[in-house]
Specification:
55% of the residues lie in helices and 13% in strands. By secondary structure, the protein is α+β, with helices and mostly antiparallel strands. The chain starts with a helix and ends with a helix.
């Protein structure tokens, strides 16, 4: 039962993260610069443990389900939850071997920077102080990001 609940929470957080990244791509030049540096067609998959939620991104073009350039695979649903809920930062999760990585680490770090920017917008400052090495300056308020994310989804 716990795994199903955590999987649903992870799925929800990934949906919010994806919408926030879309909004921030338009509104924050730092994220736009990172994503624009990716090669066309780059595919990235974030798997939240066996049988867990999955986030799949592609820079542009048609998503090819069979091909993934980068896969970040959390070893457990619980480990993914710890990261997605802001209990552990992605850098600490990597150091603790909570996930494995297949693909180009340089491009993965670019994605991680985008996620860290998004976390700075989405999480309260008290959480970001704990999970981020450096807290980036916000160019929008948290409320604006959430509001634009809802509009993005409609």
């Amino acid at each position: 039962m716990e795994k199903e609940i955590l999987t649903q929470i992870n799925r929800t957080v990934l949906a919010v993260l994806l919408r926030a990244l879309r909004v921030l791509y338009r509104e924050d030049s730092r994220i736009r610069t990172e994503i624009d540096s990716w090669p066309e067609g780059l595919t990235l998959k974030l798997k939240c443990g066996p049988g867990g939620a999955v986030l799949a991104l592609q820079k542009s073009g048609t998503y090819a389900a069979q091909h993934t350039d980068i896969t970040m695979n959390f070893k457990s649903v619980q480990g993914a939850f710890r990261v997605l809920s802001g209990q552990v930062g992605i850098s600490e999760a990597y150091a603790r071997h909570l996930f494995s990585l297949e693909g180009d680490i340089y491009q993965t770090m670019s994605f991680v920077r985008c996620v860290e920017y998004a976390e700075a917008y989405l999480f309260p400052r008290i959480m970001t102080r704990r999970i981020l090495r450096e807290i980036p300056e916000k160019r929008l308020s948290t409320l604006q990001v959430y509001a634009l994310s809802v509009v993005e989804h409609v």
